[in-house]
Amino acid sequence: MKNIKLLCKTIFLLLLFAGLAPAQNAPLQGSFTRSKALIRAIQNSGPVLYTRQVKNKKIEIAGKAYKAPGKAFFLSLILPGMGEYYVGASSYTPYFIGMEILAGLGWYGNNWYAGRLEDEYMAFAVQHAGVNGEHKDLKYWSSIGKYDDLYGYNEQRERDRNFEAMFDETPEFFWQWDSKTNRLEYDRRRLHANSILNQEVYFQLALVLNHLVSAVNALRLARRHNRQLEQTRAWQFRFESTSPAGSRSYLGLRLVRRF
Q1: For residue range 214-256, what is the model confidence (pLDDT) as tens digits?
Q2: Which residues of the chain form beta strands (DSSP E)?
Q3: Which of 52, 61, 98, 147 is found 20 to 30 A from 92 (Cα to Cα)?
């Protein structure tokens, strides 16, 4: 509203100036000299500015090109940090790559340790229960920790009428613990190994979150990058009463294009 009032004031003063100017083609400097009061009025009112803005989105400026948010998202979803690198924010990449490596190594180390504990409790069963450990499933390793021998296990399955769960009474499935203490120790070791193995879910979750966080971050950075490229182009029409050369009397029109 203020600019509109200033524009109306300037137009009115210009019309007044045109009416005071002589009809004949007198020198322009002479007209300005006879209109010092008008010039001072324009100086006091300040420059009048009219601006027309045009936004241009997908442009390239100073070597910075438009970045596809979807591409950035899927690059980081596949390999964390790559979407950030594509956008130009490579400072994020080492953190996401580092988290990926740490989570992967943690997963591998956890499973390696759980496998070592598994080998230990199986060897303990072979030593103290006479187990044949070849080609046995988790059900068998769990069952031998609950019963002193194969016969006691099968008798309980018969009482439960669960004949399908019975093991063949052959040397392949035979076991008999040398003491109840060793059987309980075996079962404790087996449960501990299983609990360590189950911790792999935390490392898997860390990997999934690392991919998702990196993907969302790359999407955010790509959108911010593109917003920065949305330059505002403006034409500025400016009535001025101060001479660039510092002369005493001046009235001019300046046209400025801003990038």
Answers
A1: 999 999 999 999 988 875 434 444 555 555 555 555 555 555 5
A2: 48-56, 231-240, 252-258
A3: 61
How many CB atoms are located within 10 Å of the residue 172 CB? 11
159 found inside a domain = yes
pTM for the model: 0.61
Residue 96 identity (one-letter amino acid): F
Find the domain containing 105 and state its range.
69-223
- The total of other beta-carbon atoms located within 10 Å of residue 226's CB is 19
Summarize the confidence of residues 195-220 as an average pLDDT: 96
The reply to whether 36 and 126 lie within a common domain is: no
CA angle 233, 237, 241 (to 5 degrees): 140
Q: Are residues 42 and 114 in the same domain?
A: no
The dihedral region occupied by 69, where left means phi > 0, alpha psi between -120 and 50, and beta the remainder, is: alpha
CA distance 72 to 74: 6
pLDDT digits (tens, 9 = 90+) for 1-45: 555 555 555 555 554 444 444 444 444 444 444 445 545 554 555
Using CA atoms, how far apart are residues 68 and 223, in angstroms rounded to an integer? 8
CB 236 within 8 A of CB 48: no
Cβ 47 vs Cβ 255: under 8 Å:
no
Q: Are residues 100 and 47 in the same domain?
A: no
Q: Are residues 146 and 170 part of one domain?
A: yes
Amino acid identity of 19? G
* Inter-helix orientation angle 69-78/200-229, to 10°: 160
